[in-house]
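ZP: hey, is the cobalt (II) ion complex queued? I don't see it on the tracker
AM: it wasn't, my bad. submitting now with these inputs:
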Amino acid sequence: MTYFTDVSHIPFEGRSSANPLAFKYYDETEKVGDKTMKEWLRYSVAYWHTFNEGGADPFGAATINHKWNHYSGIDQAKARAEAAFEFIDKIGAPFFCFHDVDVVSQTDSLQAFNKELDEIVPVLHSYMKDTNTELLWNTANLFIDPRFLHGAATSSNADVFAYSAAKVKKQLEIGKELGAKNYVFWGGREGYESLLNTDMGFELDNLARFYHMAIDYAKEIGFEGQFLIEPKPKEPTKHQYDYDVASAFAFLQKYDLTDHFKINIEANHATLAGHSFEHELHYARANNMLGSVDANQGDLLLGWDTDEFPTDIYAATLSMYEILKNGGLGNGGLNFDAKVRRTSIDPSDLLHGHIVGMDTFAYGLKVAHRLLEDRALESIIENRYSSFKEGIGQDIVTNNTDFHKLADYAHQTEITNISGRQEMIRGIINQYILETN
Ligand code: XUL
Ligand code: CO
């Protein structure tokens, strides 16, 4: 069956095109520096939001009723996979991502669930081959099942810890089979609702034990994907342990896990943590922890994770700037962890959401590349720190001084500061955004 009947594929038509079902900026073959857009951006379609989502919100039922969701059991899983790969092929994304419960229906027994997975995985594999699509990451959903009421790997119930391990074990096996580039841990229930009944230190020790066992198992079966932690400060849990990049990094350092993990940064999670997207990317890059990106945007007027498709060219420019400074995303990619609004009820709205997201980051990539090539910001930053290039500054960075020498120096020196030039920089960025072709 064909579900997306409007087009056979989304072409690149350039900035003057008036065709809403065409890319204006994303030309997958266009070279930006030494790589093509396709290679830099590594776009991925999120199975859950694109094919399972019905548009329900805390106050209203589902509004979106796509034809591929009119089935049940394994027929449902197969119809959804058929629609998914028709879409992925037409939009031209090289990757996709899924949770276990996205590709088959949640069932109460682990045995029945795994049996359905065993049935759908070869179907996914064959579509992947036919459409030349790769798996950016898969993950076990450790938050939706009522069993996870106290958490998963941080549950106060050891049986739930074991159940969580069984779910991750299965996904690592599937990841290996499908050649997953990464495995994501997002700990929606790994946190606490009340400190009054919580032993945080114990829960964090258990979380680390869980991750070490996952690493051991991956090694045992030859799973070669990169492990990723996806921070989020809250929602659904009041306080999530992987609050932001900084707290995830501190956790990984404490438990000797930095060699095995990188971070998957989601824009809307950064917003909820009170950070900008580029802050989180910069923090990860500075610590060699930037792994992958969930590309979306939030709404500053709403206090929850609205998971909108990214349309903000300014934010996309600054985030692509960080990604280029990082030399790209390695095994990672830009995964559209984004959903259309509940009023966008047609299959074609899914195409429009991805088109605008892919065009936004393609444009951001071009602007960021020009900024870097011209050293437009780099030369300002270099100048700002120039006092460390010679004299006392050089002594500091080469470890050739101490508090005695610094104090002697300070007593004899009149300090003169230079301007930070923020307004000028904002003007330069605007100019680059407006004048990129
Ligand atoms: C939830 C979220 C998840 C993770 C994967 O906010 O972002 O979909 O990306 O579990
Ligand atoms: Co996400």
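AM: back. The chain has a mean pLDDT of 98.
ZP: great, adding it to the tracker
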